Automatic annotation (TrEMBL):
Its EC number is 2.4.1.41. Pathway: Protein modification; protein glycosylation. This is polypeptide N-acetylgalactosaminyltransferase. Belongs to the glycosyltransferase 2 family. GalNAc-T subfamily. It is a single-pass type II membrane protein. Residues 131-299 form the Glycosyltransferase 2-like domain. It comes from Cyprinus carpio carpio. The keyword Transmembrane helix applies. GO terms for molecular function: carbohydrate binding; metal ion binding; polypeptide N-acetylgalactosaminyltransferase activity. It is found in: Golgi apparatus membrane.
């Protein structure tokens, strides 16, 4: 009798140990370094942790599929005819390590950086297709081709209506011509340098799908990046949605997961709708987003008097919110981007003047009496030319948009005003701030000031 009892206890103990192991294994399966055990219930808490799937990678398509992906396009010839010469500085031309990028070739597997629960999301079977718009000026061939191939490889084919490249008067017209040989890819070449803002408007006008997707020319999209964004825009065409932007190292091209808490402007609201999780954000980084084409046009596309680079993301962000739309970041959508420390291309009017012109236009049209904080943060902008804004003011009246005060009170109540650094924090892109480097250059750098919102407030409603 005693022996039976001892056996029973032994069996129960073993079962309990096995059960505990199984439970722990289940819970930590996708996790490499989970710090909290309570916050993992995405459905209950709406909070994402940095849990990733180290063993599951996004697979490259098999060789036979590649032929179909690229059609007549000869990628070997395309890449090999323009490689770094021995002894050349690999950073000189593109402000990233070209040698490393070329070494990677036209594609690679990358880690699926999403929260593991994202992989069980479901989407409408009848999502509408999108036109992908990529503008580029003297982009490296290997990064540009990886951007295009990642889209073709990691998107459901029926969702890609076309990829529209806009070659912003790059030195070598062959890039544009050759890439057009890839099925679904069209390339429009500007006859003069226009800058990314007018180039995007040109691409958007040529798009035949009802949904527009903008990408920089040195990105790699990750697993199932597109469906969450198209789903949200399909449900409400006034939503403008962005992915979480992962970092591709400019030195070794490692693909690094960004924190799921990183969002434009520090807005701290996170919501779940059954399975679809999103953050509202006051500002988007600006390069990677999905927007309904009709809504893009109705809202006035972009301010086409802005040149080359900069400021258009603030202008678009203010306009979307103030004129009846919303901005979201979707943590289940991930896209990698090569962040650089300097611009590798020239600004015909100079870097600083161009940036001031663009941001002055945004401030003058949209910021009302709060533009004083912009000028306080950037005194050198006073008196600099910014052209006529009559058309944009007329657009604002026609669309009957809300005031900037409304935007601050309703979209960004966390922003402290009128502190001296208020405008400074308005000019932030995620964790990056605008900084001046010397007299004639502006760039994005890690913010020196700490954000005004404590991290603990992030996304725990
Ligand atoms: O004259 C130009 N013509 C162009 O077509 C200058 C640039 N470009 C292209 C360029 O090839 C690239 O594809 O425009 C794109 C953006 O230029 P980058 O990559 O040199 O600059 P960036 O990465 O700093 O760009 C960020 O800020 C810009 C401000 O105008 C735009 O909003 C970009 O879209 C934006 N990029 C992103 O948001 C990507 C994610 C970064 C984050 C967070
Ligand atoms: Mn970029």
């Amino acid at each position: 009798m005693r022996r039976i009892r001892a056996n029973a206890i032994l069996i129960l103990t073993v079962a309990w140990i096995l059960g505990t192991f199984y439970y722990l294994w289940q819970d930590s399966r996708p996790s490499s370094s989970s710090s909290s055990s309570s916050g993992s219930q995405l459905k209950n808490h709406g909070r994402l942790e940095e849990r990733t799937l180290p063993l599951i990678v996004t697979r490259a398509p098999k060789l036979e599929q590649q032929g179909q992906l690229l059609g007549q396009f000869d990628q070997k010839a395309f890449l090999s005819s323009k490689q770094l010469k021995a002894g050349e500085d690999p950073y000189r031309e593109h402000a990233f390590n070209l040698q490393e990028s070329d070494r990677l070739g036209s594609e690679r597997t990358i880690r699926d950086t999403r929260h593991y629960r994202c992989s069980s999301m479901t989407f409408d079977p009848d999502l509408p297709p999108t036109s992908i718009i990529i503008t580029f000026h003297n982009e490296a061939r290997s990064t540009l081709l990886r951007t295009i191939k990642s889209v073709l490889m990691r998107s459901p084919p029926h969702l890609i209506q076309e990829i529209i490249l806009v070659d912003d008067f790059s030195s070598d017209p062959e890039d544009c011509r050759l890439l057009s040989q890839i099925p679904k890819v069209h390339c429009l070449r500007n006859e003069r340098r226009e800058g990314l803002i007018r180039s995007r408007v040109r691409g958007a006008s040529a798009a035949s799908a009802s949904i527009l997707t903008f990408l920089d020319s040195h990105c790699e999209v990750n697993t199932d990046w597109l469906q969450p964004m198209i789903q949200r825009v399909k449900e409400d065409h006034t939503r403008v949605v962005s992915p979480i932007i992962d970092v591709i190292s400019l030195d070794n091209f490692a693909y690094l997961a960004a924190s799921a808490d990183l969002r434009g402007g520090e807005r701290s609201h996170c919501f779940t709708t059954q399975t679809h999780l999103f953050y509202l954000t006051p500002v988007i980084a600006g390069g990677i987003f999905v927007m309904d084409k009709g809504w893009f046009n109705r809202l006035g596309q972009y301010d086409t008097h802005m040149d080359i680079w900069g400021g258009e993301n603030f202008e678009l962000s203010f306009r979307v919110w103030m004129c009846g739309g919303s901005l979201e970041i979707l943590p289940c959508s991930r896209v990698g981007h090569v962040f650089r420390k300097r611009h590798p291309y020239d600004f015909p009017e100079g870097n600083a003047l161009t940036y001031i012109k663009n941001t002055r236009r945004a401030a003058e049209v949209w910021m009302d009496e709060y533009k004083q904080y912009y000028y306080a943060a950037r005194p050198s902008a006073q008196g600099k030319a910014f052209g006529s804004i009559a058309d944009r003011l007329a657009l604002r009246r026609k669309l009957n948009c809300n005031s900037f005060r409304w935007y601050l009170e309703n979209v960004y109540p966390e922003l402290k005003i009128p502190e001296q650094d208020a405008a400074y924090s308005l000019l932030k892109q995620g964790g990056l701030c605008l900084e001046s480097h010397g007299t004639d250059s502006l760039g994005l750098a890690e913010c020196k000031s700490t954000p005004s919102i404590p991290a603990s407030q992030v996304c725990d409603n």
